[in-house]
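User: Structure tokens for both sequences below?

Assistant:
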Amino acid sequence: MAGAAYAAFAPAQAQQESSIDNEALVAEGRELFLVGCSTCHGLNGQGQLDVNGNQLGPSLQGVGGAAVDFQVGTGRMPMVQPGQQNPPKNVAYDDDEIAALAAFVQSLGPGPDVPREEDYSTDYLDDLSADERDAAINRGQQIFLTNCTACHNFNARGGAMPRGGYAPTIRGVSNKHIYEAMLTGPGQMDVFSDGNIPPEGKREVLAFLETLQEQPQQGGFSLGGLGPVGEGLYVWLIGIGGLVGFSVWIAAHTTRSKKGKAEA
């Protein structure tokens, strides 16, 4: 009888308490939003235009809490001033405030919610055999090479984009924020929903990126890891430029030597 009573009432009570906690978190997030975000995004997250009709901030209705956690958690938001792209900077809110803002924006409309730790954790690799672990990392490498290297470079150090944008480096970025970026597609990045890349595929990409950062530079200087364009620039400016300078120096000293012998 005690077990039946617990099964009947405890889940409903837990769900009610969870709902109350979420409502309190959403209310806290709305207060923070009205103070720090509503000037550009509107009082209800509907977006805002300036007096000239230019977009101050896009609508946040339906973007989901994951986008807020990424943008605010990396310091990209709030922006210092409108621009082509908002770079990462010091974070203005603490973790509790970011969670509250994410909960409020999540309440505005359906969208990708903040992922759980098990969604982006790569600890599951420890439970695999060596062959299974290598296979998972290789699958992550193939996904990364197919979908990400065109912008983020084969070495994950980023690169230039059209119209003044750029793909930032993803070295040193937390797994949580990389996972959220794949879910939400910030800036010019494409959205890789679970339909495009399933959660296990995203975790395999994260596993590959972790091994990429651990790899030593076997060839010596990485030259920024920007690939053949950067390496070619070094060759032209330093390599060939040094040879030309050295040739000019030899020619100048040879001319002076001949001149001195002629005078003698």
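Moving on to the next sequence.
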Amino acid sequence: MEFNPTKTIVHNEGCDLHYWYQGKGPLITFIPGGNGHGRQFNPIIAALSDKFTCVTFDRRQMSASQVKVNKKLSPPQQARDIRAIIKALGFEKSILFGSSSGGIFAFQFAHDFPEMVDHLISHEAPTITLLPDASAIFEWGLHLMEVYEARGLEQAASEFRAKLTGYDDEGIPKTASPEPENPRNFWDNEFPVCFAYVPNLWRLAENKTSIGVMRGVRCKDAFFARATEEQAKILGCPRLVVPGHHQGFEVETKEFLPYFLEMLDALEKKRSSV
């Protein structure tokens, strides 16, 4: 379908959350990661809105969803923001798709509001403390924070981007750039939390929450891609290797879409068989 969403705002905990939605049918909520903006999901929203109501948003302190004073990231607050948007749309539950730290926020939402989860798909959530080489990656994260404090945003971001394989592959379109203030907020207030925080996946397994995880084929052995292996072990859930890099859903949407629908179908069949 043509992308022609309805844009609106819901106020939650001191923030006007800017969100937009399109389509009819079951709700899919697309949750941004560290880049903060919802525009990355516009192509997949257009592709799915013939069968689903699709919504995304700018996360608090990112893009249009600004606050008076920026604060340190709280994953539980991010989950409450997601709840506010779902409720504002008049739904009691939603399918969730979260990418990168958006996957962490999706896990947190499922932990805090399990009754509101229809299905959850997490795409490359960077739960680094689950990895066999967690110690080395954690200390690399500390190094990046020191670089940011001593040498500035561009140097830290450059070293971080080196892990984002696939973005420069031949023929791959560029992703939508976040507003300039987003990277600053990410490094000031979000990176340390996102890099170390892991929601209680064991509780999600106990709750039998319908979850699937994905990793992009272009990401090769990146830590956030490998983390999906450990997530799937804990959750006992389906895991798919899908087209694209860390934002493949945005720039290789046509190739990505069948895998997204395959995962939804697998989760629906798994739930029906229980």
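User: Anything stand out in the second?

Assistant: The mean pLDDT is 97.
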